[in-house]
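User: I'm curious whether this sequence folds into something compact or stays loose and floppy. Could you predict its structure so I can see for myself?
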Amino acid sequence: MALFRRKKKIVKPTVKEQKKIGARLRRMYPQMYKPVGMSKKEYESLSTADKKAIAKLRGTTMKKIYGKG
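Assistant: Here's the prediction. I'll summarize afterward.
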């Protein structure tokens, strides 16, 4: 009966599981995690506003590629 159904409890992943998930995503979608055209050192030296602008551009290109949104 539908009256006695329980709601599924949402469980957050542990730190170890979160690292596994992150590694899998980095392998599948490296362009999301690596700034294209610049080294990691150059990217880290940018201001937060510049980093946000790059993230926004990267997000729009990802949406174009994968057709979401």
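Summary: The chain is about 60% helix and 0% strand. The radius of gyration is 18 Å.
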